[in-house]
């Protein structure tokens, strides 16, 4: 079946050095756009941190172009932007996860509908996020002021560059698994989203908006927060640097890594031939 929509993760999938879209990927995406195939960034980030990437793709403030954010918690049409769907996270749950993170001495990212706040982040973490997130100071050092302001929470995540330790932590926090959607990203984050919210549900909501079938989509990613999307799409693609535990769940695996033009390879091998 011909692909009508490609949903792609950003970090360690579409973006290369300096958080820029690799040139080979840009050329392939342009071919898709000329053929009427939609290319949709699907990210854990908030919409307002994506300006650089959307401008590189020629999609910034464009009608008929879409973005999946907060790991599927929000879907936007880029013009405006127009919020198509938003699933917020219960404030009491965010508070509980935040306090547990404090007890564990972890750095955290706290996402609201339009901002990301940093808590106890190291300089290394701030440098790693350069070009990916602009952190605001957490007012008062906790969530009290944000909650009083009526802020809508999108997600919260823990930071730990020791990935085996992070995986053990997830097992230790099994109580949160029952009340949130937990996943890993970039081998340094343990993410908490609202229950049953993931990039797969975001892709389904966008397909409903556009009248597309999931069989008409391709999803490309590298990490565990991409897995639901990869499994939901008609064709699920892991880039060469995909997490080893996910490889069996991918329909296809590229030979190239994210910084070598993996997205362009996926488009060239499994999308464009069906358009000829």
From TrEMBL:
Which Pfam families does the record match to this protein? Answer: Hydrolase_3 (PF08282)
Question: Is this entry keyworded Methyltransferase?
Answer: no
Q: Among its keywords, does the record have Hydrolase?
A: yes
* One annotated GO molecular function: hydrolase activity
Show the InterPro entries listed in the entry: Cof (IPR000150), HAD-like_sf (IPR036412), HAD-SF_hydro_IIB (IPR006379), HAD_sf (IPR023214)
Q: What keywords are assigned to this protein?
A: Hydrolase
Family annotation (PANTHER family): HAD SUPERFAMILY HYDROLASE-LIKE, TYPE 3, PHOSPHOSERINE PHOSPHATASE
Stored NCBIfam families: Cof-subfamily, HAD-SF-IIB
Mind telling me what this protein is named?
A: Cof-type HAD-IIB family hydrolase
Q: Which organism is it from?
A: Lactobacillus leichmannii
């Amino acid at each position: 079946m011909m692909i009508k929509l490609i949903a792609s993760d950003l970090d360690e999938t579409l973006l290369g050095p300096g958080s820029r879209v690799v040139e080979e990927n840009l050329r392939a995406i342009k071919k898709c756009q000329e053929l009427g195939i939609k290319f949709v960034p699907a990210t854990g980030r908030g919409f307002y941190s994506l300006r650089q990437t959307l401008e590189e793709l020629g999609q910034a403030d464009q009608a008929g172009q879409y973005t999946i954010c907060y790991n599927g918690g929000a879907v936007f049409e880029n013009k405006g932007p127009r919020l198509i769907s938003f699933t917020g996270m219960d404030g009491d749950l965010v508070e509980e996860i935040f306090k547990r993170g404090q007890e564990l001495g972890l750095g955290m990212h706290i996402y609201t509908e339009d901002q990301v706040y940093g808590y106890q982040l190291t300089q290394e973490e701030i440098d790693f996020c350069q070009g990916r997130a602009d952190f605001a100071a957490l007012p008062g050092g906790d969530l009290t002021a944000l909650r009083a302001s009526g802020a809508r929470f999108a997600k919260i995540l823990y930071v730990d560059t020791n990935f085996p330790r992070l995986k053990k932590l997830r097992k230790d926090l099994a109580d949160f698994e029952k009340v949130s959607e937990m996943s890993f990203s970039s081998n340094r984050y343990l993410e908490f989203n609202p229950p049953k919210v993931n990039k797969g549900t975001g892709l389904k909501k966008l397909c409903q908006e556009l009248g597309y079938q999931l069989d008409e989509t391709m999803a490309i990613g590298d990490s565990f927060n991409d897995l639901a999307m990869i499994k939901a799409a008609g064709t699920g693609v892991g880039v060469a640097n995909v997490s080893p535990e996910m490889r069996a769940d991918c329909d296809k695996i590229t030979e190239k890594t994210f910084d070598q033009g993996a997205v362009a390879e996926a488009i060239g091998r499994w999308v464009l031939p069906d358009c000829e």
